[in-house]
Specification:
The complex is a heterodimer of chains A (287) and B (274). With 287 residues, chain A is α/β, with parallel strands linked by helices. Chain A has a single domain, classed as Rossmann fold (3-Layer(aba) Sandwich). Chain A is built from nine helices and nine strands. The N terminus of chain A is likely disordered. Chain B has one domain: MetI-like (MetI-like fold, Orthogonal Bundle), CATH 1.10.3720. In chain B, 76% of the residues lie in helices and 0% in strands. Chain B is extended. The chains are: A alpha/beta (287), B mainly alpha (274). The interface between A and B is medium-sized, with 38 and 20 residues.
Chain lengths: 287, 274
């Protein structure tokens, strides 16, 4: 199956989708200095060209290409082992690509080095499948670590050392995820859903322009997963943040993504607007 | 499901695998090496058989141990000095081990050449026995407990430096990846994610390092590096077996006590998270 960009496949009615709660629509993009009056062109935040990655002799994916506009929310779907998480990490420069090029906010994270790479990453956030909090530290310290890209050094190692403004920013982020009362609790004393909320607070505390989320609710029970996804997208949509998230949940991909990219057989087999897709079409990627 | 007692149509697999010719040669070579080592070590059934009467003779002469108050006071002071050597050496050694381990741990802050060079140095430190380090420091700083403490410091760095590095390499990578993704520097990632993740293992290794230091410090006195070891040597040299037995019992009591304390502290500090 190959669906081209913005394809117009007719939607199949899915009862699960009809009951979905309303998520705020994507706001107007951030001011685009290059836009021509009357022609609203949103700048491209992420571009992949001929992207390939292999581990040893085993290719994970190859010849991946797409452009993601500012403020777009993109679901990356595919079966286990399709390479979603690897692609996500290649886009961030956490894993080097074997071929092709990535442009993330105008910079290639695979060729950027040292301070340039850190400055780029400071404009980006990551929410992982497992919350990846530091268990022995306080919730507030964990959130403060989200500022280390913008403000490196010992003052952001712990909430006890942090400047007042950073503590205030971290508390505001915790407040937005509803966990301000848990600021001084140790991270390993939280439930799975609470931990993922703290991970979201850590990802948004630095006001990132692009957010990556790798199956953010995969380790949560369905109810907690829904809460986390709703919260995550409520927080980022109203700020015009570009979001790329991976998910096995077809419903989530269609509900939270403006656009869906599907990986299968090491290739990008699907690139279409969520509105043009049905759950049945997406499930076809898993066959 | 097949019930117990029912037989299957399939033949039962053999209980043991027949070794290949190469494996058989390997086992045979291993056996030859063990016999060769026993021979080199002077193993003799005759000597084993003759030992119990001699041991009984020693026990007869060593018991009861010497519990005279002035002897106990002298040995007690030496035991305190032994513990001071062990604790001071272990604490300084553990503190120095952390930066050394950062250099030795692969993929953290230093490149592969520095990792390998640091690990080689740590391997050398461990290869030299603590008593040999004590002899070297006696030559360097003179007789007394300071030489013993320095020997314990070096011995602890060799031990804890290696295991701290292994602990950091084995620490969960997820938190470090999340911080790297925010643009944090390597040193920030190590301090904020890697070290906290490895802390339970650090505590356990450090407590074991302390136990090891206490055991080592009891014999450093044999080469003049302070502590109670000199009393043991003098006791045997003068055939004063009751006093030597008192020393042995004191060492055993202190080492066992430290191990118990260490186990209790390990459980209290690390708890169920280890």
């Amino acid at each position: 199956m190959r669906v081209t960009r913005n394809s117009t496949i007719s939607s199949v009615s899915d009862p699960a989708l009809e009951t979905r709660p309303a998520i705020p629509a994507a706001p107007p993009a951030r001011p685009d200095p290059g836009a021509v009056a009357g022609l609203p062109v949103r700048p491209v935040d992420i571009e992949a060209r001929g992207l390939g990655r292999q581990f040893g002799e085993t290719p994970v994916f190859s010849d991946i290409g797409f452009r993601l506009a500012r403020g777009e929310s993109v679901a990356l779907v595919g079966a286990n082992g399709a390479g979603k998480s690897t692609l996500l990490r290649c886009l961030m420069g956490l894993i080097p690509v074997s071929s092709g090029r990535v442009s993330l906010l105008g910079t290639d994270p695979n060729t950027a080095r040292g301070p340039d790479l850190r400055r780029l990453r400071a404009r980006v956030g990551l929410v992982s499948q497992k919350h990846n909090l530091v268990p022995r530290l306080s919730v507030l310290s964990n959130v403060l670590h989200g500022l280390l890209g913008k403000a490196p050094g010992p003052r952001h190692w712990s909430h006890a050392l942090a400047p007042r403004a950073s503590r205030a920013a971290a508390m505001a982020a915790l407040d937005r995820v509803g966990l301000a009362d848990f600021a001084l609790r140790r991270a390993d004393r939280l439930s799975g859903g609470q931990s993922q909320r703290v991970a979201i607070a850590r990802a948004i505390v630095g006001d990132p322009e692009v957010l990556f989320a790798d199956e953010p609710c995969a380790s949560l029970d369905p109810a907690a997963g829904e809460d986390v996804m709703d919260l995550f997208f409520r927080l980022v949509r109203d700020k015009g943040v570009t979001v790329v998230f991976t998910s096995h949940n077809v419903d989530h991909a269609l509900r939270y993504g403006d656009r869906v990219l599907g990986l299968a057989g090491g290739r990008l087999q699907l690139d279409a607007t969520a509105a043009s897709l049905s759950a049945a079409t997406l499930r076809g990627l898993y066959d | 499901m097949t019930e117990i007692g029912q037989s299957s149509a399939r033949p039962l697999p053999g209980r043991y695998e027949t070794p290949s010719a190469l494996a058989f040669l390997g086992y045979a070579a291993g056996l030859v090496i063990i016999v060769w080592c026993l021979s080199g070590a002077g193993f003799s059934f005759d000597k084993v058989a003759a030992a119990p009467p001699r041991f009984a003779d020693f026990a007869t002469r060593a018991f009861p141990p010497n519990l005279e108050p002035q002897v106990l006071a002298r040995l007690g002071a030496k035991m305190v000095e032994t513990l001071q050597i062990a604790i001071a050496g272990a604490v300084i050694g553990v503190i120095l081990s952390l930066p050394v381990a950062l250099l030795a741990a692969r993929g953290l802050v230093a490149g592969p050449w520095i990792n390998q060079a640091t690990r080689t140095i740590l391997g050398f430190i461990r290869a030299v026995p603590d008593i040999a380090w004590a002899l070297i420091f006696v030559v360097a700083v003179g007789l007394g407990p300071f030489a013993g403490m320095l020997a314990i410091v070096v011995d602890t760095v060799g031990f804890c430096g290696r295991f701290f590095a292994d602990d950091m390499e084995a620490a969960e990578k997820g938190p470090a990846e999340s911080l790297t993704a925010t643009g944090a520097r390597k040193i920030d990632v190590v301090v904020c994610a890697t070290i906290p993740a490895a802390t339970p293992a650090f505590i356990s290794t450090s407590l074991y390092g302390l136990e090891k230091a206490v055991r080592s410090s009891t014999i450093l006195g044999l080469v003049g590096a302070g502590g109670i070891g000199i009393e043991l040597k003098v006791g045997f040299d003068l055939f004063d077996y009751p006093t030597a037995m008192t020393v042995i019992l004191m060492i055993a009591a202190v080492v066992i006590g430290i191990e118990q304390l260490s186990g209790w502290a390990r459980a209290r500090i690390i708890g169920e998270q280890r």
